[in-house]
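Colleagues,

Please find the record for the two-part complex below.
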Amino acid sequence: MALFIDQQTLDDLIIFSKGKNASICSFFNQTVTRGGEEQLITMLQYPMNHKEEIQERVDILRLLMSIPTLEFPFTSLDFSDIEQYLSETDSRSQIQNSKKSLKEKLRYLLKVDAQILHTKNGIAALQRVIQAFVIFAANIPAAKKTDSWNKFEQSALKITETTLWKDFLDTEKSVQITDKNIHKIDQRCRFDDKEVILGFMKATYELDALIAVAQVALNKNLTLPLILEDSDDTELDIDGLYHPLVPNAVPNKLSLGHEEHILFLTGANMAGKSTFMKSLGISLYLAHLGFPIPAKHMRFKVKDGLFTTINLSDNISSGYSHFYAEVLRVKRVAVELGNKKKLYVFFDELFRGTNVKDAYDGTLELLKSFAHKTDSFFLISTHITEVAEELSHLNNIHFAYLPTILENDKPVYTYTLEKGVSEDRHGMVIIENEKILEILA
Amino acid sequence: MKKFHTDNQTLEDLNVFGKFKKGSLFQLYNRTQTTRGEKLLERWLKEPFTEIAPIRDRQALIKELAAYPHDFPINLENLKKADIYLRQPIATNYVSSLGNLSLKKLKQLIGIDSEWEIFSSSLKATLSILKDLHTFITELNKQENKDTYRQAYQRIEYISKQLDSAEIKALFSLDMADSIKDISSIHYTLSKMSNDGLKPVIELIDELDVVFGIREVMKERKLCFADFTVDYKSLYKVEKLRHPALKDAVSNNLTLSDDSTVLFLTGANMAGKSTFMKAVASSLYLSHVGLPIAAHSLTLTLKEGLFTSINVPDNLSKGYSHFYAEVKRVKMIAEEVAAQKKLLVIFDELFKGTNVKDALEATTAVSSAFASHNSSNFIISTHIIEAADILRVQHPNMQFKFLPTVMKDNRPTYTYTIEEGVSSDKHGLLILKNEGVFELIEK
């Protein structure tokens, strides 16, 4: 089962992007092969909701990250030869074992047969790649190998147990590929043992994607997340969290425990609420992939879904419609919560499509309702700080804010999360500074 | 004349310009048949008057032509053709005119170009336009009450006199030949009409084009002309006001006068606050242009400016700068108000990007400060109804009205009719409840 997400979440967190814009995908995409890139995209599309699966991915990545001078162990040129060779699946293209007439032999001597050349190149490249995989696996100290790696290695290297490998391909035996045996090898590679070979190729692509992720993690100082048991007292613990796509992002710390499963975030408009929400969203998303996250350390609980509403499209000009879009989004989440799903739910500036009064009422009621859903996590940001007063008696809400400091009447932002509710009353300060009331007096 | 004070935000709110913009005031009043007429209407809408006389003058002209029994008097085909001639330099003397034209004729004869033909046919078209205009003015003079549109009438009279001159009249009866002599003598005579050539004639035709268009609009919709008064310091009294762009719009009454200059308007989101405020603002704006408006009657004092904040884009992402821009604008308006300028100021949901406390404090403080100035009128809308409680105590003569929401089968419906009092409709929460959100969560 995969983690519940939707397009809105993918868009909010910029997991993928159109064109050449930076995205989480482009952030990790340092794959060597095209197949590796496809694997990475597939992985990113399917975050997981099983602790064991996530842990397996984390373990493999931890292993890869521990390898000194980690590098993709294959030459990318070999892959184009293999891909070209394997992509021809028509049985008529099979190399025939026919006794060649003298005439044919003569022609063969004079002019290279393109098909046989491709086949030879493809098989040789395959040989090299398998060999490199074997060496790569063998170079990892046995003590480091975890169950998940062994599982991965075994399934990838099933190919070395085939007679195809043993009889022909194993380079240690140095069997020459000749005109005499090529038709046999071709038959095995492309037809008889096709599944095993494709399985092996998929594993190499996966290795490509994983090595790319591990390399990015090493270069950018990312860390692998730790999974908490559902019963753990700590709800979420993260330190040094930053937005990977924002240059010079300020790191933040957040530690929630003792039944705190709602984070109530306030702060002025430019104080960095959305960016903080996006960073946390991205980290939770990556954590459910078992990927390294942009933080110093992170402990989290695996849940069933991640719903963010940060940049809800407001191209609809009418206030009601935007409000209604928000209501529908809330309803969507409500349905999942009603189905006993454990969710991560993010709402940025909830009900901004309506008036302050309605937004106040709606936010308050909704938060009271969310407070009963103790196995889901809610992050709600709002500029309506008054809601906090009404909720201060609830001990499952953690109040945090992003401060604004006025320096020479100009607001300055620290982008550092602090405990409590924003009391920035800069609205009135600005009005006073502009002396509007004096003008009218 | 002083310029009418307004700004882009206001013009955007009122949707004044835009030939292809749906429901723009320009589109509503534009039934012109020529591009020049279109441009003139645009100029009218760009420059509302700040004096009563020219407003009454334009109103009178429109009223007069509305009563005129025939259609637009000028043949459009001729008008198009005449354009070429009208753009010609005027002939300064007969000899040079003759020489110039002879050259054209010669070129035509040896087949170099067709300038001559174009010139002469354009000239003939011009002449028949003048004939049309002459007939029209003669007809119009038969109508009564022409003295009411003093200035406009003076313009018409001026042209009328020239067209009545023996020289021009002689041209009308001229049996037009294609001879150089005839054409150049017509050309010379027309050039003599005024220093500006035929400019006054063209300008009158443009004006007629616009007004005949407005006449069409008046036939389709029940419009009225504003009555400007000097008996008050500030007055805006409207009966059965409708939004100009809406068909079957609900009509409303409103009176803002010296002893009650501020309207404090509340109501739910869809209840029609913005529509009402736009209707008020556009009726005031159009009245200062001298155009008829969508109401039963409107009596008002002359204003020097109009400022509205109705569709301020909700750029939360711009954050501080957006709020700051809003404050800056309020300040600019405050300065004008403090300078005893006569304005209509409309604020829809002031300070909505900030928290409730700030919005409440700021809204009451600003409204209260405005209320002490009776040379301008104000309409302020907000969702923070608590502001009304505070303001009611401070300013007993402030008006409190609201647009109600009526619940039918738990669905909000709207009457769009203004009522006395303060709205307490909170249907946002209701919509959440209607969608069953809370039950779903608790399930």
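Chain B has a mean pLDDT of 85.

Comments are welcome before we finalize the supplementary table.
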